[in-house]
């Protein structure tokens, strides 16, 4: 594989691996737990790295991932003492674990190729040089293989637990009543998030993985109401952002993973503005449309009581002439009003329209 | 740059962030600090680039802090805007802003490192994890001046801040401009975060906002004291962290300060008076022991009722037949001065007799009260009385006793003791 292709493939695998559990984090209102886990797994990663010399190996991913579960447990325990509120317990636990991890990194920096920059934004470009041989035949980038396996495992989790995930996300009480054990699903999901952040660590770092986890699902959430479509869209948006980001980074010679996160932000901004039903512009347009229809109905109602001249209409409605002319022109064009400015009356179609709006 | 100045700088950072953090924690906006801190990174880089382009000193603290404040503010506005105009919740909005702004900051940082004229000396990476050793005197002065302004504002406007933090609607009904106060509060938190960036770094600054406040909360219920305490705890963590990181070269200050603050939180959670987990456990253990001993006294009293012999030694094995109280409880009653032990025999002391009579009196008067006044069925009385007998205070029982007309017998016909019997 060429260097460019490897980087794109690693980024795409990370985007898919993150978007799958990230979608459920978002829908369950646990986005910040994903943030917390991605930071808190750092000490686990450093210890695993020091023991084995590499981060991209499946046992290490699972082992360090256990630290992520421990974090969730710790936050939950702290909250249950009822001495610290939930948001504060998240904000207290993960920086402490992350700080511990950073100190470990600094302590052993120089001995092995692990440094502070790597913690923050990874080194996706190194993925090309860190290779492994599969089945004695194919030589592939090791981070790519690990991320691809994690992405497949996440896909298997989502497909295998589809009913449970869906039900416990949208109606936890019903899920519990049906005996689906929301707690088990919760911890499996947290485990998936932990393993995914660990697997992504080497390539995109502990903080930018938050963008991969949250931003594409949030973008997809603005575009669809269907869970399956949202999952597919989130994966697609993530992969698209990876491609855009890499091209930008290559041209500006800046951080690749950082650029990918920025690209995700840009795609989100586009969806925020232009999404058909959830977008800001769409909403403004629909509000405008509704106001327009209401204004027309007001004019038609007035004319239905008694035909009136342009002047009388302006006096009764107390509108400025510009607005009135605009509404009347549009009503005439639609054939809702007949007659000239001296005497106007509504057509049968216009009366039907007004009834429809006023209902 | 002397160590003392660095210590003062970090203590200022901790004190300002800790004090302001109280408001964030009380308003359940702990993670807003995280978003603010991450969102400041691109501002630092942009200010550096702008400064270099305009011919200003690109490392001037005021310039960098202004840039940081600008994007931190922008980030907060975006969080509010996303939450207000989409169906995304605040946590998702915080996550989006935090990670995308941080990504932008990383892109700009790598750009500065590769393209800026004095690339390596830019030293912007100290804004990631903090580097107290890199603080110059002018940095510390800037931090102290801004921090002082923040603290002064909080002192002057403490009352409105307090009311808004606890009950916005109440504040609005009193005529306070709630929206403006909220905006000012968030701005001050942003300023406190930005002031701390050089010492602690964008990644961990959020902890310095939340952790000291969460620790201070354990020691007091009053906001004024909590703010002072959180300032003290933050300041102490800052100074200790700066000192510890000066022991070895190239040790980032942020993580060490955060770990000190977390340690202080741990101590507070365990040892703070009243709320401390250790004291809670001690209290519960003491309470269980008191109930155990009182039950033993009551059993001895009941045995006395059976044979009319309240005082005088009695075989411990007789007691075992009643409740199976182990020997250790007898020992506890002896330590408390309620019983005397001689070999296999136990005897109530005068104080023990008095205490026993009170417990039995409490039990029976309470049963009578439940039965007569609350009309609870006879077979439901005992269990409730078993708990209340240990909890009722003498003056409460006296009032119930009087209200019931100083009855002689309980609903089951057993006598209600009034004081220890004559020996």
Quick one: overall form of chain B?
elongated
Strand composition percent of chain A = under 5%
The Rg value of chain B, from CA coordinates, equals 33 Å
Quote the distance from N terminus to C terminus of chain B.
82 Å
Q: Structural class of chain B, please?
A: mainly alpha
Main beta-sheet strand count, sense and barrel state of chain A: 2 strands, antiparallel
> Spans of chain A of 5+ residues with little confidence (pLDDT < 50)?
none
Order of helical and strand elements of chain A:
HHHHHHEEHHHHHHHHHEEH
What is the helical fraction of chain B, as a range of percent? over 70%
* Chain pair forming the biggest interface: A-B, 57 and 62 residues
Q: What is the helix content of chain A?
A: over 70%
Low-confidence stretches of chain B: none
Give the tally of structural domains of chain A.
2
- The average pLDDT of chain A is 87
């Amino acid at each position: 594989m060429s260097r460019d292709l490897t980087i794109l493939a690693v980024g795409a695998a990370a985007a898919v691996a993150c978007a799958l559990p990230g979608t459920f984090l978002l829908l369950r209102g646990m986005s910040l737990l994903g943030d917390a886990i991605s930071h808190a797994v750092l000490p686990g990663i450093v210890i695993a790295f020091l023991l084995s010399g590499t981060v991209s190996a499946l046992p290490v991913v699972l082992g360090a991932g256990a630290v992520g579960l421990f974090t969730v447990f710790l936050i939950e325990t702290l909250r249950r003492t009822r001495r610290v509120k939930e948001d504060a317990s998240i904000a207290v636990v993960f920086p402490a674990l992350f700080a511990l991890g950073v100190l470990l990194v600094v302590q052993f920096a120089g001995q092995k190729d692990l440094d502070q920059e790597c913690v923050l934004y990874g080194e996706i470009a190194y993925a090309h040089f860190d290779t492994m041989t599969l089945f004695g035949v194919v030589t592939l980038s090791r981070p790519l293989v690990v991320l691809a396996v994690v992405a497949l495992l996440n896909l298997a989790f989502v497909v295998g637990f589809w009913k449970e995930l869906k039900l416990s996300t949208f109606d936890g009480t019903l899920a519990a009543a049906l005996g689906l054990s929301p707690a088990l699903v919760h911890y499996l999901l947290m485990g998936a998030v932990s393993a995914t952040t660990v697997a992504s660590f080497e390539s995109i770092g502990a903080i930018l993985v938050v963008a991969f986890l949250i931003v594409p699902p949030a973008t997809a959430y603005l575009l669809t109401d269907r869970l399956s479509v949202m999952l597919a869209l989130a994966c697609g948006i993530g992969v698209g952002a990876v491609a855009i980001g890499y091209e930008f980074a290559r041209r500006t010679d800046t951080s690749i993973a950082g650029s990918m996160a920025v690209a995700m932000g840009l795609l989100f901004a586009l969806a925020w503005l232009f999404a058909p039903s959830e977008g800001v512009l769409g909403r403004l347009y629909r509000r405008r449309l509704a106001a327009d229809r209401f204004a027309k109905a007001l004019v038609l109602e007035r004319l239905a009581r008694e035909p009136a001249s342009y002047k009388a209409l302006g006096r009764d409605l107390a509108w400025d002439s510009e607005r009135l002319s605009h509404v009347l022109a549009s009503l005439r064009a639609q054939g809702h009003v007949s007659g000239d400015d001296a005497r106007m009356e509504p057509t049968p179609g216009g009366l039907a329209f007004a009834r429809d709006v006023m209902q | 740059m002397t160590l003392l100045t660095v210590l003062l700088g970090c203590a200022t950072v901790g004190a300002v962030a800790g004090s302001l953090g109280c408001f964030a924690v009380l308003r359940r906006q702990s993670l807003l600090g995280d978003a603010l801190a991450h969102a400041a990174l691109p501002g630092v880089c942009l200010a550096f680039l702008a400064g270099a382009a305009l011919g200003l000193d690109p490392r001037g603290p005021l310039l960098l802090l202004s840039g940081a404040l600008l994007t931190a503010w922008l980030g907060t506005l975006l969080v509010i805007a996303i939450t207000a105009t989409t169906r995304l919740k605040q946590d998702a909005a915080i996550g989006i802003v935090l990670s995308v702004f941080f990504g932008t900051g990383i892109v700009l940082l790598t750009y500065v490192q590769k393209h800026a004229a004095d690339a390596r000396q830019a030293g912007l990476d100290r804004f990631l994890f903090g580097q107290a050793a890199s603080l110059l005197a002018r940095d510390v002065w800037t931090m102290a001046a801004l921090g002082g302004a923040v603290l002064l504002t909080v002192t002057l406007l403490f009352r409105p801040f307090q009311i808004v933090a606890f009950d916005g609607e109440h504040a609005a009904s009193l005529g306070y401009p709630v929206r403006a106060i909220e905006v000012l509060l968030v701005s001050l938190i942003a300023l406190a975060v930005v002031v701390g960036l050089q010492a602690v770094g964008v990644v961990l600054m959020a902890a310095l906002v939340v952790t000291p406040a969460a620790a201070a909360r354990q020691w007091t219920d009053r906001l004024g004291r909590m703010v002072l305490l959180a300032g003290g705890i933050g300041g102490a963590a800052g100074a200790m962290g700066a000192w510890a990181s000066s022991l070895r070269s190239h040790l980032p200050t942020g993580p060490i300060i955060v770990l000190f603050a977390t340690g202080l939180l741990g101590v507070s959670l365990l040892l703070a008076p009243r709320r401390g987990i250790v004291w809670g456990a001690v209290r519960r253990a003491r309470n269980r022991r008191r109930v155990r001993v009182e039950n033993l006294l009551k059993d001895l009293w009941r045995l006395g009722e059976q044979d009319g012999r309240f005082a005088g030694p009695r075989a411990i094995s007789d007691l075992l037949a009643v409740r199976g109280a182990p020997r250790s409880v007898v020992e506890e009653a002896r330590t408390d001065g309620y019983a005397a032990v001689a070999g296999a025999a136990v005897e109530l002391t005068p104080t023990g007799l008095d205490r026993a009579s009170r417990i039995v009196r409490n039990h029976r008067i309470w049963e009578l009260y439940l039965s007569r006044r609350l009309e609870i069925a006879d077979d439901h009385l005992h269990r409730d009385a078993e708990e209340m007998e240990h909890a009722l205070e003498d003056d409460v029982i006296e009032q119930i006793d009087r209200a019931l007309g100083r009855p002689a017998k309980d609903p089951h016909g057993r006598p209600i003791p009034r004081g220890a019997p004559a020996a």
